[in-house]
Each structure stands twice: as structure tokens, then as C-alpha cells.
């Protein structure tokens, strides 16, 4: 089922999750252990991240330097297929611009379509690794709107090459939103204008970047509605679990940590996870009371803190553990 259909049919807020594939050489059993815990909470869908190739350098015994290029976390499509058939949960694979040609993206979409996967999240991805060369004969999507447009073209039966009687796909497309604005945008209004372009190009719903200040989300939603964006805007949350998150999360995700949360963690760093769980719980209650269509948890590897939050929420039977 499409994500947008889940929201249209929901009688109460939906709780969804985002996970990452195992590292190259890792076992999928570790992911399944997390999913075993997550599916007890009846998630309508689970996102799976996608990762471009990265480069790293190795010094050989003779002193020369050798460059290696590889994807540290391959397997997104395979994991989505396994999730769909093992757990019966709708997977939402991420598709990214950086590191993939349009041709590779088209191939991925064809595979997902054959697997009966109805949803994708279209994002630009991290800044390109300048040490990873682009194919000379390849074409690339530069921005998320270009990726959304390619997916919508396939939904209309338009492929990169002219194909007679081409099959139309039917993907539901999610796009990313930034309550505190994308770090490259000059201001929030310009960022929302770009977001509206993505929605107008075919985006069916919006999932936000993680945030810790609900005022940012509510202000963002108001501005989106004023701009004519009517699709669901789902708040994305991560539970702060350790003191180093106070520096790590703002640095890598370009977000702000409220002073009250920061001071509480600094004063009692050994209790950071419990502080983070309580903060996230209050965030969820306020967001749901304020009309958010659901909560999307960025759990990455360990879902336990997010599940602890859910256990504290006054949710109905559809979200309670089986």
C-alpha cells in the first residue's frame, strides 16, 4: 500500500521508522533483530536508507597510496524485499541523486516495481565525494526535484529512452522537508519555495529532518500551508541518547538543540538516554495534540529508545504491541 493511502485511511496518528542497511560484510540478522522489535508496534511503513559510494585511501607496504571506492552499506533494495515478504510491512527505500546515474536510478526503480514496492523517498543525499569519479557517459540528477521528476516520468510511462508501449509505474513519492531550513538555503521562505517545487513535481508527502524544537515544526507547517503545500507533513524525530549527540547531531544534520535539553544533559550526562526519552515523549505528545499526522522515528541501529518513547504515549490499539 502507498504511504499516502496509509495516511488517508488512518483513524489515528501513524508511527513509522527509518533504519539503515548493515555495513558491507555485516549480517542482515542484526537488522532483523531490530525489525523483530519494531514490527510489534504495527508500523504502516519503514524507510530504508540508500548510500552512495565513498572513497578511502590505503597506504601499501611500499609506501604508495592506493585509492579504493566502494559503498559501505549496499543492499537497500534486497533488504526492502526481505522486509516486505518476511514482515508484511511496506518498505520505503530511499533514492538519492549523489553517486548514481539516471540510468542506475531507472534500473533501481524497475527492480522495485517488479518487487511490488509502491513507495520511494527521493532525496539529493549528502554532498558528493569529490574523490569518486562520475561516469563520463552517465547522466545525473543534480537535485531532489530532478529525481522526483524522473520518478514521475516513469509513472507516466516515460523512460530515459523512447520505449513503445512502456509500462507505467505507480510509485508514491516522499520528499524531505527542513523545519529549520536546509543549511544551503538563504532563508526558510526560499527553502519552502523549493519544497513546493518538489511537491508540484510529484511529491506525495513530506518527512521532515529531525528536530528537537516543536516550535520549528509548527512554524514550518504553517508556512508550508501558506505557500500552498497541502500534502501530509510528517515530523521526523530522533531520541537523544548520549552527551556527544549535543555536538554530533548539530554538526552533521544542521539542527539546533534547545538550551533546556542541552543543559539538562550536560548536568547529568550519565542519564542522557532517560533525559532524551522524556524529551522525545513530550515532543510526541505536543506534536500529536497539535495535529501532526504521525511520528517518524530515525532509529538507525537500535530502536529501543524510540520504542520506550512509544510505550509512554497515549496511543490506540493499532500502535500497541501485538
Whole-number mean pLDDT: 90
Helix content: 25-40%
Shape: globular
Order of helices and strands: HEHEEEHEHEHEHEHEHHHEH
Number of strands: 10
What is the CA-atom radius of gyration, in angstroms?
Answer: 20 Å
Named at the architecture level, the CATH assignment is: Alpha-Beta Barrel
Features:
322 residues, 8-stranded parallel β-barrel, 11 helices, 39% helix, TIM Barrel
Explain this structure to me?
There is one protein chain. This protein has one domain: TIM Barrel (Alpha-Beta Barrel). 39% of the residues lie in helices and 18% in strands. The protein has eleven helices and ten strands. Helix 6 (188-201) links the parallel strand 7 (172-177) and strand 8. The radius of gyration is 20 Å and the shape is globular. Residues 55-59 have low confidence and may be disordered.
Summary, kept brief:
This protein is α/β, with parallel strands linked by helices. The chain has helices at 3-9, 28-38, 76-87, 102-114, 144-155, 188-201, 214-226, 245-253, 259-267, 272-289, 304-312; strands at residues 14-19, 45-48, 54-59, 65-70, 90-96, 119-123, 172-177, 205-210, 233-237, 294-300. Helix 5 packs parallel to helix 6 (188-201).
Amino acid at each position: 500500500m502507498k504511504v499516502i493511502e496509509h495516511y488517508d485511511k488512518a483513524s489515528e496518528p501513524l508511527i513509522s521508522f527509518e533504519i539503515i542497511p548493515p555495513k558491507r560484510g555485516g549480517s542482515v540478522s542484526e537488522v532483523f533483530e531490530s525489525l523483530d522489535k519494531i514490527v510489534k508496534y504495527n508500523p504502516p511503513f519503514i524507510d530504508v536508507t540508500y548510500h552512495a559510494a565513498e572513497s578511502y585511501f590505503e597506504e601499501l607496504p611500499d609506501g604508495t597510496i592506493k585509492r579504493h571506492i566502494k559503498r559501505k552499506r549496499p543492499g537497500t533494495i534486497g533488504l526492502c524485499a526481505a522486509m516486505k515478504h518476511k514482515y508484511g510491512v511496506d518498505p520505503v527505500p530511499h533514492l538519492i541523486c549523489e553517486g548514481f546515474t539516471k540510468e542506475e536510478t531507472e534500473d533501481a526503480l524497475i527492480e522495485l516495481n517488479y518487487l511490488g514496492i509502491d513507495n520511494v523517498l527521493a532525496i539529493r543525499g549528502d554532498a558528493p565525494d569529490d574523490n569518486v569519479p562520475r561516469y563520463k557517459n552517465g547522466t545525473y540528477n543534480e537535485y531532489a526535484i530532478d529525481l522526483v521528476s524522473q520518478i514521475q516520468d516513469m509513472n507516466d510511462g516515460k523512460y530515459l529512452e523512447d520505449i513503445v508501449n512502456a509500462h507505467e509505474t505507480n510509485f508514491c513519492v516522499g520528499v524531505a522537508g527542513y523545519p529549520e531550513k536546509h543549511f544551503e538555503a538563504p532563508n526558510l521562505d526560499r527553502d519552502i519555495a523549493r519544497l513546493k517545487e518538489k511537491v508540484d513535481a510529484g511529491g506525495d508527502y513530506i518527512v521532515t529532518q529531525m528536530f528537537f524544537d516543536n516550535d520549528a515544526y509548527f512554524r514550518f507547517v504553517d508556512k508550508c500551508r501558506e505557500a500552498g503545500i497541502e500534502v501530509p507533513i510528517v515530523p521526523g524525530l530522533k531520541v537523544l541518547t548520549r552527551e556527544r549527540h549535543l555536538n554530533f547531531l548539530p554538526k552533521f544534520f544542521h539542527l539546533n538543540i534547545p538550551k533546556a535539553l542541552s543543559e539538562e544533559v550536560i548536568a547529568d550526562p550519565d542519564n542522557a538516554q532517560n533525559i532524551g526519552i522524556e524529551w522525545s515523549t513530550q515532543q510526541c505528545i505536543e506534536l500529536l495534540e497539535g495535529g501532526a499526522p504521525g511520528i517518524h522515528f530515525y532509529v538507525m541501529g537500535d530502536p529501543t529508545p524510540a520504542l520506550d518513547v512509544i510505550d509512554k504515549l497515549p496511543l490506540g490499539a493499532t500502535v500497541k504491541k501485538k
